[in-house]
Design a protein that fits this description.
The complex is a heterodimer of chains A (about 350) and B (about 325). Helix content of chain A is about 45%, strand content about 20%. With about 350 residues, chain A is an alpha+beta fold. Chain B has 12 helices and 12 strands. Classes of the chains: A alpha+beta (about 350), B alpha+beta (about 325).
């Protein structure tokens, strides 16, 4: 049996990427209700690509963007992800954090996305970082854990957010992933076995693990709160945020700075700016109407002063709101088939 | 007269069971809307109740001061695994469990039953039962009741007992002494299920897991896996193996389910006894170990299909 061809998707805006992810994963996990929210955290024009090469019961993807992105996804009980970075010796220009685990060369994270601890999962993918993602079906993984009696692995999935592991199994897993993108693998078994072995091996003392904690949950909830589309979207004050999160102002500020490298108000601004941009890109609203309502859209997301909003918008995306609206009718996703071996 | 009631919430089952002195907390161990039904009858020195549910249920706090609560299941479909666990005793079609209620404190027992069976509790008066044993010189029955948590019974008396209970659940209990006679024969004739040493250890651990999950003093602390392992003095792999085998989920998920159910119970009680405001949900969330209200609400919604605020409003209207 031959491996299916890999496809490369190139996105010029995040709305296109969100729509693609939604359609793609809904098809892959037919019973899940997948939704995601992506925000550009660095400034400049965006170019993002994703190479997908799924096989039966495993989704495999290599992701890269020229900007730092914040990715938030509703947690689900169907899939479980294992992500790692592969910068081929080069130093990336931004930090990558997967579900709260700061990613290094040996890190694997993302498997704590089961909807057990509360609902959403978030990642920051640093600019120009190559992110390798493998998504496995939880039902199959759980059956294999039972078969293999690998209950330390189960414990890791519930309690651990990420691991830095130099174990043979994690190295083999990464090699198998690479082999798939160069030669094509047709069976899923090896990916499941190595994922379980990696989790089991992570119990060895030489491996560093990040455990689920108050601060990882705090940031998860903060991201969720800032993404929420509340009616009328009144501006959130720091007082409201800290009360909602049942936390001290200082801890929220500190956790925000150490994770996003910006204060909480700047983070709100980035997220809302992205939301305005997505509203300008909405393909279901006529161009004329978008021009007519562009100031109202900005106001809805809390930008009261149109002139300062325009300046901030240009500084962030290197284009004006009008440019975005004009571009919205153009194709935002380019898809091409790739031959194996040409993907490294 | 058919006395079988349909319920939409495990809380309603708990309320009905309270009429028999059972202060049991019931947690649905699977997300999604379930349907439940219960038939029950009582007479002098005896009560019987049969419960069916479309989702697996965990009962904690079973047992009264007056009764020994014998338990059996009736399978409704085929399964390759035990249909339930009564105090850790595997429940199949020929199992009689619940013996722990003989010598434990009221409310110390627990059980878990799958959606593939109905479970029947037969509550018999302790003193009358002991008198019956003495009258019949049923020394084996006394030994079995004191030393076992359950028995395998392939004797005709068990079939008779089940038929009698089924009939009486419909027409009412006509002759309570028949139950005492049949249970005495069952306890005399039953055989022990041979458990491996490890399984016996698991049974103890299961009870401790259920107790810790429901411990009101521990509820307000968000528990980490390390905390649980330390409290139960067990390694994480054994803990997960046991939890997965018996409850079909990891320990953290199980404890979250129990806490959500407790929070729900508390909200329904709160709305019927006092007014609520914006802080009520936050306070309840914190009381049951959910530090952030938003996280609590989302998890609650996933489990019960409604937001905490909707539960409060709905139960106020009721």
């Amino acid at each position: 049996m031959k491996a299916r061809k890999a496809k490369e998707y190139v996105f010029s805006n995040l709305l296109g990427m969100e729509t693609y992810c939604k359609n793609h994963y809904n098809e892959y996990y037919s019973t899940s209700n997948f939704s995601c929210n992506i925000t550009q955290l660095s400034k400049g024009e965006l170019q993002t690509s994703s190479i997908c090469a799924p096989i039966n019961n495993v989704h495999l993807e290599i992701f890269k963007s020229n900007q730092t992105l914040l990715y938030e996804e509703e947690a689900n009980q169907n899939s479980i992800a294992f992500c790692w970075i592969n910068n081929q010796g080069e130093k990336p220009s931004g930090n990558t954090i997967i579900s709260g685990h700061k990613m290094k060369d040996l890190s694997i994270a993302g498997f704590n996305r089961l909807n057990k601890t509360g609902g959403n999962t978030w990642d920051i993918v640093g600019a120009n970082t190559i992110l390798c993602c493998m998504s496995l079906k939880w039902k199959i993984l759980k059956e294999k854990i039972d078969e293999m009696n690998a209950y330390n692995a189960y414990a890791r999935i519930e309690e651990c957010i990420g691991i830095d592991s130099n174990s043979t199994s994690s190295i083999q897993l990464k090699k198998l992933f690479e082999k798939h993108f160069t030669k094509g693998i047709t069976t899923a078994g090896g990916f499941y076995d190595l994922a379980i072995a990696t989790l089991e091996d992570s119990c060895e003392p030489q491996n560093h693990i990040t455990e689920r904690s108050e601060s990882t949950e705090l940031i998860e909830d903060l991201v969720k709160l800032l993404h929420e589309d509340r009616a009328g979207l009144p501006p959130l004050t720091i007082g409201e945020i800290t009360k909602y999160l049942n936390s001290e102002q200082e801890s929220v500020g500190q956790v925000c700075r150490s994770t996003f490298n910006m204060n909480i108000l700047d983070l709100i601004k980035s997220i809302r700016l992205e939301q305005v941009k997505k509203s300008y890109l909405n393909p279901h609203v006529p161009r004329g109407l978008k021009q007519f309502t562009k100031q109202h859209n900005a106001l809805y997301y809390g930008f009261k002063n149109w002139n300062s909003f325009q300046r901030l918008y240009f500084k962030t995306f290197l284009e004006s709101p009008e440019d975005t609206i004009d571009k919205s009718s153009k194709m935002s996703v380019l898809v091409s088939d790739l031959r194996r071996g040409s993907m490294s | 007269m058919n006395i079988k009631f349909s319920y939409t919430d495990p809380l309603q089952l708990s309320e009905t069971l309270q009429e028999y002195g059972q202060v049991t907390k019931i947690t649905q161990l699977e997300s999604g809307e379930g349907s439940y039904s219960m038939a029950h009858q009582k007479s002098s020195g005896i009560a019987i109740a049969e419960i069916s549910a479309s989702k697996p249920l965990l009962y904690e706090g079973w047992g009264t001061s007056w009764s020994v609560d014998f338990n059996w299941i009736t399978s409704t479909r085929k399964a390759n695994y035990p249909f339930g666990y009564c105090e850790g005793f595997d429940m199949n079609d020929n199992s009689l469990g619940g013996f722990n209620t003989f010598h434990s404190n009221p409310g110390d027992s627990w059980g878990k039953y799958s959606e593939s069976c109905s479970s029947t509790a037969c509550m018999l008066d302790k003193k009358t039962l002991l008198n019956k044993f003495q009258e019949c010189k049923a020394s084996q029955a006394i030994a079995n009741l004191s030393e076992s948590i359950g028995l395998i019974i392939d004797h005709e008396a068990f079939s008779q007992l089940r038929r009698l209970a089924r009939r009486d659940l419909v027409r009412g209990i006509l002759n309570p002494s028949k139950y005492y006679d049949l249970i005495t024969i069952c306890l005399e004739e039953g055989s022990h299920k041979l458990y491996k040493k490890k399984q016996v250890k698991n049974q103890r651990l299961l009870g401790e897991i259920v107790n810790l999950s429901h411990d009101p003093d521990k509820m307000s602390t968000p528990m980490s896996l390390l905390d649980v392992c330390q409290q139960l003095n067990v390694g994480q792999a054994s803990l997960y193996r046991t939890c997965q085998d018996y409850f079909g989920m990891g320990i953290i998920e199980m404890m979250t389910q129990v806490r959500l159910e407790e929070a729900r119970r508390s909200m329904i009680y709160h709305s019927s006894t006092s007014n609520f405001d914006n802080n009520t949900i936050r306070e309840i969330a914190i009381r049951f170990g959910f530090k952030h209200q938003g996280r609590f609400s989302r998890r609650y919604f996933t489990n019960f299909g409604e937001l905490p605020s909707q539960t409060l409003k709905r139960s106020k209207l009721l």
